[in-house]
Design brief:
With 338 residues, this protein is of the alpha/beta class. Helix content is 33%, strand content 22%. It is built from 10 helices and 9 strands. The two termini are 29 Å apart. The model is unreliable at 1-8, 10-24 and 333-338 (pLDDT under 50). The structure holds guanosine-5'-triphosphate and magnesium ion.
């Protein structure tokens, strides 16, 4: 399986360029950490995947898709950027969300650059004002990014949208782009490399992420749930990978996964299972196809649905869902809590 051994997935469509990460490489390089911050649905995860050049973080049109800090790594001759995708800024109503917002604030204060991303096709409101305040308070230099500029609604009012933010904070740079099409992303990369300090890459430049395979598998299943039960789902689900086995089969690597889709109530369980089990079967086959494509292995997936009351406030269970990073990328002074 790609990147086993280290657990981080390497390769992908954007292989590291010559000289990247090599202490003997040609000339100095710029390296550091960058946090992606913005409201839910602004397109942070889409941008992370675009910049890294492969799928690292799941995407959906539902808010609060991302729940943890997910590192994607950009490796180039210019240097290395460890990019952190973060949960969208929102008002936390459960312990799960309180934890999400703690991770967000800690990361913003510790990175070299914050990228504040907004959906330029929507008029800004109180939420955007709140994000701007967080960015100002964290004290880290920030780049302002207008996303979704493939949409006419975004392009029409770009100056006005930028002005909303620049009226209350001074940004090192501003960039208009489309994470979806990739237009403008090169300008963002150039701005980031220019702001990062000169130095050596922190991480193995063949890696594209530090997240463990186990966590990525849980995320791909959660993405399939979001896609399949989009309309019917007025509630929140989690995915718990109970057991994982990998073996070298005759036809290449085989990955066996036993996982639960966790909901809060039996009535919700009925929705996710579907009549005759049809919905959960669809979810399972979507997730399995994604895993096979992204992990380069055949996959056997045993997927169940479980009701677990108040799981979003159950600290022990939340801890089990946390992404144990396969390769450490603690930023700052290494004071990350366990
Ligand atoms: N048209 C357009 N849609 C985009 C663009 N970037 C993201 N989207 C869409 O916006 C929706 C949200 O994208 P995500 O990347 O999941 O957003 P996010 O900011 O990570 O959201 P959370 O994880 O919930 O905070 C998805 O439907 C994306 O396809 C873009 O540049 N243009
Ligand atoms: Mg996201």
């Amino acid at each position: 399986m790609a990147g086993r051994g280290t657990g981080g997935r390497g390769g992908g469509s954007a292989p590291p360029q010559e000289g990247a990460g090599s202490p003997r490489g040609a000339g100095p390089v710029n390296c550091g950490t960058v946090a992606l911050v913005g409201r839910p649905n602004a397109g942070k995860s889409t941008l992370l995947n675009r910049l890294v050049g492969e799928k690292v973080s799941i995407v959906s049109d539902k808010p609060q898709t991302t729940r943890h800090r997910i590192a994607g790594i950009v490796n180039e001759a210019r240097g290395q950027i460890v990019l952190f995708d973060l949960p969208g800024v929102h008002r936390p109503l459960h312990r799960m969300n309180v934890r999400m917002m703690h991770v967000l604030r800690d990361t913003m204060a510790e990175v070299d650059v914050v990228v504040q991303l907004f959906d330029a096709s929507q008029p800004p409101g109180e939420g955007e004002r709140f994000v701007t305040r967080l960015v100002a308070e964290c004290g880290t230099q920030a780049v302002l990014v207008a996303n979704k500029c493939d949409l006419a609604a975004a392009r029409r009012r770009l100056d006005e949208r930028f002005a909303f933010y620049t009226a209350s904070h001074t940004y090192a740079e501003r960039v208009a782009l489309s994470a979806l099409t990739g237009a403008g992303t090169e300008r963002l990369l150039a701005a980031l490399f220019a702001l990062l300090p000169a130095g050596e890459p922190w991480l193995d430049p063949t890696l594209s992420t530090t997240q463990s395979e186990r966590f990525f598998i849980a995320e791909l299943i959660r993405e399939a749930v979001l896609e399949r039960v989009e309309q019917e789902l007025p509630f929140t689900t989690a995915v718990h990978v109970r057991h994982l086995e990998e073996e070298e089969g005759e036809r290449g690597p085989l990955l066996r996964v036993w996982a639960d889709v966790v909901v809060e109530r039996p009535s919700q369980k009925a929705i996710v299972v579907g009549r005759g089990g049809q919905v959960i079967r669809d979810i399972g086959s979507r997730a399995r196809r994604q895993m096979e494509a992204l992990l380069g292995a055949r996959v056997f997936l045993d997927l169940r649905v479980k009701a677990r009351r108040r799981w979003r406030d159950d600290t022990g269970f939340l801890r089990e869902l946390e992404p144990l990073e396969a390769v450490g990328v603690a930023v700052g002074e290494g004071e990350e809590e366990g």
